[in-house]
Amino acid sequence: MVQNRGYIPKSRQREKPREGLKYIGKSMKRVEDPRILTGKGVYADDISFPEMAHVAIVKSSHAHARIKRIDTSKAEKLPGVLAVLTGAQAAEICGPLPTWSSPPVFQRVIAHERVRHVGEAVAAVCAESRYIAEDACDLIEVEYEPLPVVVDPEEALNSRGDAVLHPEHGNTNLILESKFDFGPVKEDFAAADHVVKRRLRWPRSGGTPMETNGATAVWDEGSQRFTIHVNSSMYNFVGWMIADTLKIPHHKLNIVPTLAGGSFGAKLFLYKQPVMAAIFAKIVGRPVKYLEDRMEASLTNDAHASDRVYYAELACKKDGTFLSFRQRIIDDYGAYFQYGVGQHGNALAQVVGPYKINSVGVHVQAVLTNKNQQGAYRGFGSEVANFVIERMVDAAAEELKIDFLEIRRRNFIQPDQFPYLIPTGNMYDSGDYEKVLDETLKILDYKGWQKKVAEMRKAGRYVGIGIATTHERSVFSSTEFWMWNLDGKIGWTSSPDSMSIKIDPRGRIYGTLHSPFWGNSPETVATQVIAEQFQVDPSNIEITYSDTDKGLHSTGPGGSRFTVMVTGAIVGAAAILKKKIYKIAAHMLEANPDDMEMRDGHVSVKGAPQKKVSLQDLAFHAYYMRLSMPDPEDPDLTSGLDATYVYDHPVTTLPDPKREHMGIFYPIMGHMCHSMVVEVDPETGQFTFLDYACVHDSGVMINPMTLEGHMRGGVVNGIGSATSEHYYYDKNGQPTNTLLTDYLLPSISEAPANMKCGHVETPSPFTEYGIKGGGEGGRMGTPPALAQAIEDALRPLGVKITELPLTQKRIRQLVREAQTKRAAD
Amino acid sequence: MKPAPFRYVRARSVDDAVAALARDSEAKVLAGGQSLIAMMNVRAAKPDCLVDINALSGLDYIKVKDGGLAIGALTRHETVKRSALVKEHCPLLAEAYEWIAHRAVRNRGTFGGNLCHADPASENPAVALVTEASFVLKSAKGERTVAAGDFFKGVYQTAARQDELLIEVRIPSRPKGQGWGFVEVSPRKGDFAMTATVVTLELAGSNVKAAKIALTGVSDRAIRLPSVEAALAGKPATEDLFRAAGEAARKAINPSSDFHADDAMRRDLASTLTRRALTAAKSRCA
Amino acid sequence: MNKEKITVTVNGRKHEKEVEPRRLLSDFIREDLRLTGTHVGCEHGVCGTCTVLVNGKSQRSCLTFAVMADGAEIQTIEGLGTAEKMHPLQQGFWEKHGLQCGFCTPGMLMTAVELLKENPNPSVDEVREALSGNLCRCTGYQTIVESIQRGAEIMRGGK
C-alpha cells in the first residue's frame, strides 16, 4: 500500500512516558557483567569441541589479477593437513555469499578465477591446528596474471576493460548511480543570495572491534544438519541466506550466537566464517573453527566503512536561512557491494540535520575499486552526512559572517513543529534542539572558555572551540533499501524484533532474546523493562538467547534500534501475559480483572493493595490448577504462563513508487550536541583536548549509565575516524596499515580524560515509554565538532578543513601550506 | 597469525649461548621477544633456530664501572626505566624511557635486545649515539667492543655477527654541567617515533662548548648530525642559534616517506624537535 | 616437531605439559589449559587484551612463547575472583561500567592488578599512564579509569 507524502500512521504507543517508573531510567549495574568480568563469557574463539580442526586462508598478494594456476600439492602432503580447497573447488560445493545489492554483485568464500583485492582468500586449508594450517598456506603456490588496479574513487568512474572488477555488470566500475531531487531544488537555488560550495572528503575507516569474526561449525551426519556458533548478528533475520550459500535446506542449519567482543557494525551479518567453517566441517567430518586473524580482519572482513568524496552546495539567504542542500557523492565501495548503497539511504534519513531546509538534491555514484568491501560502521553512512552538513553550516556562518551558533539557532526545527517531515520524506518524531545546545554550552562553560581562549591566543597559543549539533536517527525499518532498487522491485518493509517471556511455576521470569549480545547491554535492557512490566525484582529474571531453531523474526541490534525494538516486543509479550495473569488473579482474589495491577512481585487490586497474590503463587496456580480456573472453556486460560511477541517497526510508511519521496523509514530522531576545546601545536601537527562536553537526547532513557557508555565510547570512535584511523591503499592497491601498529585506534592517551555528559529527554510519541535509540553514540557528533575546533584553533593561520583524517601529517601540511601562502602573499 | 616452526635452544649460560650460536649458523638470539615474536606472528620473520637467553643469569644488571654505566644486555626495559643509577648517570636515557613502549612490553623487552633489533624508529639507538655508548659483543672466539657509531648498520642491521651475543652496553656518565634533551613525535604515545631528536649540550659561559645531536625515524638507522653539531660549537647558546640548528637539521637529513609521515613532515619535525631539544638541554646545563 | 617439556603454575595450579617451541603462551593458556578468559585481540602485541601476569609482572601472552614461561607463576583473570565473590577490581568495573563488550577487559584487569600492587591510590594520570598500552574500542576509557580507582578504594578498605 502506497501512502501519500505527509501521511503519518497513528502511534501504537501503549506505555506513555511518565514519572514514577521503578526500573526504567535507573543506572542499574549490568546483568551481563559478572560472567564477563570473571573470564566466563563465551566469545567466538572460546567455543571448542573435541577433535576440532582449524582453517587458515591463503591471502591474495595482488589487488587485481586473474588466478592462472594454484598448486596445493605440497600443502596437502604436510602432516596434520586435513583438507585444502581452492576457489574452483569451493565453487562446486557452495554458491555465492549473501548479498543485498540489486542487481547482485557476487562474492565467493574463496575467490574464483579472479582476485579483486589484496587479502582476498585464494585457497584455504583445514588442519589439526591453526599453526599447521598456516604452515600449509605457505606451501601453496599461486600464479597471478596482474590486471589494472583501481584505487582512486574518482578515477574509478572512468575505468574500462580489464580495470573493470565485475564485467558482467557492464564495462564500468560505476556500479550504481542515482539522482534524486526532493522538493524544488532548482527553484530554491535560483532564489538563493549565497551558495556555499565545498569539496569534502571522508576517509575509509572501520569498526575494528577488538575481537575478530569467527565461527565454529559442527556437521551432524545423522541428522544431516549444521550447527554453527558465530559472533554474528541478524541470524534470526536473514540467517537462512547462509543455508542458501551452503546449498542445503534451510531447516538443516542452526545458528547459535556467541558473545561478540564488539561489533560497531563490523559483525552485522557474518557469512564468510560460517560458510568456510561449514564446508570444511562436512569435508573432514569434524568440528571446524575459522577465526579471522587480525590481518584478515583489516584486509577482508567485509566491514570497511564509507569512503566518500562530496561536492556539496548549500543555498542560503543573506540572513543565514538555509533553502536547499545539493550534493554529488562518489563513494568507494571496494571490491563488492553487499548492502548496495544502503549507507546512502541511511544518510537521507537525516540529511538536513536539525535544520529547516526546503529541498534536497542527491546524486550518488557508487564505484567499485580493488579494496576490502564496505560494510557497516556505527552511523552506517549517516555519520558522514552529519560531518558534511555541519561543515557546510560552519562554512556558511563564516562566509555570511554570522556567528556559528546563531546560524544554527536561526535554522533549527522548532519544538512545536514535530512530527516534522523532511524533504526526503522521512519524519522526525520529536526534538528540542535549542535545549540540547544550551545545555551543552552550560556544561562546557562556553562563555568562560571564550574568554580563556581569547587570552590564550593573545599569548600565542593555538586554541579553538568546536561545536556540532547533529542527529542520531534511530530504529531503521529497511524500507529505504527499496529506493535504490532501480529494477522496480519492492524492498523489504518490515524489520521487527521479538521477545519470548516465560514465567515458571515458581514465579521466576525467563526472557529469551532473539538477537545477540554484541557489546551492548541487551540482557540489562530486557531485565529492566521486564522488571518494570511485572514489577518484580531484577534478581528474579533470567535472560538467554535463542538460536535460529527456536528464533523468532528479529532484526537485531544495528542502527540504534535494539532498545526501542526489544522494549516494544517485551511490552507486547507482557501485555498478553498480564491479561492472563489478571484473569487468574481476579479469580483468586474474587475481584474484577480490570482492577488488577502488578506491585512488588504481587498482583493486587487497585486501591486495595492488601488484596494480593504473589506472582509465585499465581504462577503455581497457572501451571497446575487448570481445572480450578473460573471458566474451563476460556481459550486464553491454557496451562502455564508464556508469551511471545513480534514487534514491528513503530512508525513507517512505504516509499513513493515514482521515488519522489522515501516515506517514513528512520523516524525516531535522537539529537546531540558535541563541543570541545582543543589546543594545536602547529609545528608538530599534534593536538590535545582541553575540555569536552556532550549532551544527547535519546528520548526517555532506560539506563543512563549504559547510554553514557555509548556516548563516550562513540566519542573515541569519532576521534579515531576524524584523526588517526585510515584504511589506506597505495596506488598499487596495497594496503599500508593492515596491523594495529599502523591502523591507529585511539589509545587512552588520545582520549579526553574527562568527557562531561548531559542528557535531554524528549520522549518519542511513537515508541514504548518514549525511548529513542542511542547506540551509535558520539561517533555521530564528534568528527564535525573536532574539525571545527581544529580549524578554529588554526584560524590565525587561515587553515580550512575539508578532509579527514586530521592526522599529525595532515595538520602539519595544512599549516605549512598556509604559512607558505602567507609568505608568498 | 602463528609463527612458523623453529628449532629451540634454551641457553643456561653466556658460554652456552655463544656455543649454540657458533654451532648453528642459522641461529638467532631470542631475548625479550617483544619485536621478534610480533614479526614471527605475521611470518615477517621465520628464523630456523632460536637461542633463548631468558633463562641465563648474570646479564641482568645496572652498575657503575669505569666512569660510566654498565648495563647487562638482558636487563628489562622497566628495570632501566626505574633505575636510580640511570637517572643519576644518564638522565637522558631515563627521559627517553618516558617515550618507550608500554608497561607490559617494558616488563619483558630487554635493553640489549632492543638495541640489537636496530629498528630505525627506535629511541635507544639515538641515545646510544649521543652518549657515545659502546657495545660488548661476545662469541665463542672472544669478546670485542664496538662503538655505538659503528654498531647500527641499517634497518634491523647491526655490526654484531650472527655468532655474537651482546652482553653489555657501556654508557659514559653525564659530564658535570652537561644538559640533555629528548623530544619525540609519534603517532600515539608509546608507538615508535615518527621522529625524535636526542641532544646533549655543554656550555662554556653562555656559548656552546659542545653539542651532540642524534635523530631517529629519519633514516634507515638512528643518525648523528656532525655538521650541525660542529656549527653550534663556540656560538652563543641562543634561541636563534637553536632555530638555525633546527633548519640545518632539516637540510642534513634525507628521510623517506611512509603512511604516518612524509619527507616534508619529517624534515619539519627534525627542525622543530632539534630546536626544542636544544632548548630543553640548555635549561638543564648545570 | 620437537616438543619441550615445561612446568608452569597458573592461578596456583601446577601444570606439566609438552609444547612445541613456537606455541604462544596465549594459545597455551587458552587451548591447552582451557582458560579462555584471557582473550587475544591483535596477535602482535599492540592491543594489550592478552595481558597476563608472569611472576607478578604484566606481560603480553601473544608475545611470549610458552617455553619461555617454564617455571613461571602465571595469573590470569580466572585467578582473580568469581561471580559470587569478585575481586575488588572486578567489583569496581561492574559498578562503574568499565566494560561494554568485555573483550579487552581481562587485559585491563591484569594491568590494573599490577598497578595497584605498586600504587594503591593512583591518580587519574597514573591510571592513564598504566593503561596506555591497552586498547578498548567500547568505553572511551573514562569509566575504566573510574573503575580502577573504585577498585583501589575497595582494596584500601572503602565500601
Task: Kindly list the characteristics that best describe this protein.
heterotrimer; A: 825 residues; alpha+beta; Aldehyde Oxidoreductase, domain 4; seven-stranded mixed β-sheet; 21 helices; 28 strands; globular; B: 286 residues; Uridine Diphospho-n-acetylenolpyruvylglucosamine Reductase, domain 2; Uridine Diphospho-n-acetylenolpyruvylglucosamine Reductase, domain 3; Enolase-like, domain 1; five-stranded antiparallel β-sheet; four-stranded antiparallel β-sheet; 12 helices; 35% helix
Order of strands, widest sheet of chain C = 2-1-5-3-4
**Reported CATH architecture of the largest domain in chain C:** Roll
Q: What's the mean pLDDT score of chain C?
A: 97
In CATH terms, the superfamily of the largest domain in chain C is: Beta-grasp domain
Please describe what this structure looks like:
The complex is a heterotrimer of chains A (825), B (286) and C (159). Chain A is an alpha+beta fold and 825 residues long. Chain A has a domain at 496-647: Aldehyde Oxidoreductase, domain 4, CATH 3.30.365. Chain A is 27% helix and 23% strand. Chain A is built from 21 helices and 28 strands. In chain A, the strands form 7 sheets. Chain A has a 7-stranded mixed sheet, with helices on both faces. The longest helix of chain A is centred in the last third of the chain and has 28 residues, at 562-589. The model of chain A has no long low-confidence stretch (mean pLDDT 96). Chain B is an alpha+beta fold. Chain B has helices spanning 14-23, 36-41, 77-82, 84-89, 91-96, 103-108, 111-117, 124-131, 148-151, 226-232, 239-252, 263-283, and strands at residues 7-10, 27-30, 49-52, 62-65, 68-72, 134-139, 142-147, 152-154, 157-158, 165-172, 179-185, 195-204, 207-216, 223-224. Chain B folds into 3 domains: 7-52, Uridine Diphospho-n-acetylenolpyruvylglucosamine Reductase, domain 2, CATH 3.30.43.10; 62-172, Uridine Diphospho-n-acetylenolpyruvylglucosamine Reductase, domain 3; 179-283, Enolase-like, domain 1 (2-Layer Sandwich), CATH 3.30.390.50. In chain B, the strands form 4 sheets. Chain B has a 5-stranded antiparallel sheet with strand order 4-5-10-6-7. A 4-stranded antiparallel sheet of chain B has the order 11-12-13-14. In chain B, strands 1-3-2 form a 3-stranded parallel sheet, covered by helices on one side. Chain C folds into 2 domains: 4-79, Ubiquitin-like (UB roll); 88-155, Orthogonal Bundle (DNA polymerase, domain 1). The radius of gyration of chain C is 16 Å and the shape is globular. The interface between A and C is large, with 59 and 58 residues.
